[in-house]
Structure formats: structure tokens, C-alpha cells
Amino acid sequence: MGIPRTVKRLLMPAGLVLGSFEQHEPEPARMPEPLWAEPDETLPTIGVVMPTMNQATFIARSIDSVLDQDYPRLTMTVQDGGSTDGTVDIVRAYAESGRLTVESGPDDGQSDAINRGMARIDTDIVAWLNSDDLSLPGALVTVGRYFRDHPDVDVVYGHRIVLDDRAREVGRWVLPRHSRGAYQWRCYITQETMFWRRSLHERIGGIDDSFQFAMDWDLVCRMADAGARFERLPRFLGGFTTHAAQKSLAWRESIGEPEFDRIRRRTLPTRRARVTAMVGGARYLVASVPMYWRHRHD
């Protein structure tokens, strides 16, 4: 169940609501400046898994967005499902330079690929980045410093920039502070910006590979049920690419909505719980509107 059209219009006359990708005409992307010039060797180790399947058009850009940050304690691995479009050749060129590892072969879908990749890394902090998305400049150092300085925090995430297939900016998701109530109704956490502790990942059993679309929301809900502490960082950390072949568009109705309903039935078992979550989600959306306008032309 999505946000009613009339509510969207009330929230944003321009049509913006968290969940909308193309919010304005394409324009040059405005990337954040790194907050620190030099990474610190005391930072925790970070592991990034990149699941991929036939993404030769985008994957080099996605890999470079991670590696070019020169994070000093980074492990990156690409888990390929058996691409036939040249993706593997591109990735192997990076692997031959020693900058990442790659495994290619049949799998049971994206969730299975992420789990396979996670099994191949051993770091303090973990994340996955889809092979058409970006990690924005300075994101890794920002995340690493926050985890180092806040040992009681288990999960962090931030704002996203939405890009088209030519890396032009077409939207922004500017997120209010973390709200457990809002995320029970719909996952507004921007997956490409989310990082979490390896200890939490192992405690909850990793990605549920019965999900092929809403695995990120399911993961967030199970983290919350396990008592994880979340923090939204007030910084743009990731770039989400919207394009014609994107799974988020192609699978949303046929696979995504049934999986959303499956999660809601589990996390919101009563009418009272559903109403409370709807109210929390509406408040969250309202709070996002002035934040968006502040960042629209910063």
C-alpha cells in the first residue's frame, strides 16, 4: 500500500515525496565535498559487497565511486551472477590490480549473491552497493569515523542523490532523524547509504534470501527487532541511479508490493499497530519536505 495521490499533492505541490525518483529535470550532479582531507588509520575496517548481473554499462562507475575514496582499511568484493554482457571482464581488470576480489557463477538471485559476498569478507563494518549505484565522495571516512567514535551505534545511513543513466541529478532524498514508527510502515532508509556492524549482521543471520526485492526493508526490521541502534547522518552518502532496466521499476508491482505486504503482516499484526505506523510515516514525510527545500539548491 503506497501513499495516496492526494496526500502526495498536499505534501509537495511539485510532486516530491520520499519514494519518488525523478523529481525535476536533469541537471549537473552536485556532489558533497569530503569533510576530511586524509583518512585515519585508526578507522574500523569496512567491507563492501557489490552484487551484479549484466551491468556493464554502470559497474565501472560504481566500483570507482568506492575505490577512489582511498579508504585505508577497505575490502571490496564483487559477486557476479554469471553476466554475459562484459561485466566480468570489467571487474576482473580491477581484480588483477589487487583492488578487489570477484566471484562469478550462477546464484539464486540478488539476496543470495549478497550473502555469498558477505561470507567472503571479514571486516568490522559491512554494506552492499548495487552495481548501478554510487558511494559519494567522503562517505566511507564519514561512516568509519562515526562508528569509531560511537561504539554504541549499530547502523548508520544518510541522504541520497538520485541520478539518471547519464549521472545527472534528478532528485534528492533528504531524510529526517531516524523514526522507528515510520520504518514500520515503509522503508525510507536509503539502502546504498546504509552501513552496519558485522557483529549485528551475524547475530540476525544476514540477508533473508527468500526476499528478492524488499530484502533491505526486511533487514532493517530484523535489525530493529534485535535491538539495534540506528543513526541517520545528516550528509549525502549515496547516489541511486534510476534507469529503464532498473529492478526497482520493473519488479515493484509484481514482486515488491507482495513482499512489502508480507513484512507489514509480520511487523504490524493489529489494526492499531498499522494505524500508528501510518501516522508515524505521515509525520516523517511532512518533516522531510522543508529539509528537501533547504538542500535543493545548497
Give an overview in words.
This is Glycosyl transferase family 2. GO terms for molecular function: transferase activity. The chain is an alpha/beta fold and 298 residues long. The protein has a single domain (5-296), classed as Spore Coat Polysaccharide Biosynthesis Protein SpsA, Chain A, CATH 3.90.550.10. The chain contains 11 helices and 10 strands. It has helices at residues 5-11, 59-67, 87-96, 110-119, 139-149, 180-185, 198-204, 215-225, 247-250, 252-267, 271-296, and strands at residues 27-28, 46-52, 74-80, 101-104, 125-128, 134-135, 155-163, 168-173, 195-197, 230-241. Strands 1, 2, 3, 4, 5, 6, 7, 8, 9 and 10 form a 10-stranded mixed beta sheet that branches. The longest helix is centred in the C-terminal third of the chain and has 26 residues, at 271-296. The two termini are 33 Å apart. The model is unreliable at 5-16 (pLDDT under 50).
Quick tags:
298 residues; alpha/beta; Spore Coat Polysaccharide Biosynthesis Protein SpsA, Chain A; ten-stranded mixed sheet; Glyco_trans_2-like; transferase activity
Mean pLDDT: 89
CATH class: Alpha Beta
* Shape annotation: globular
Q: What oligomeric state is this? A: single chain
- Order of SSEs: HEEHEHEHEEHEEHEHHEHHH
So, CATH architecture?
Answer: Alpha-Beta Complex
Superfamily (CATH H level) name: Spore Coat Polysaccharide Biosynthesis Protein SpsA, Chain A
CATH topology: Spore Coat Polysaccharide Biosynthesis Protein SpsA, Chain A
Can you tell me the number of structural domains?
1
Specify the number of helices.
11
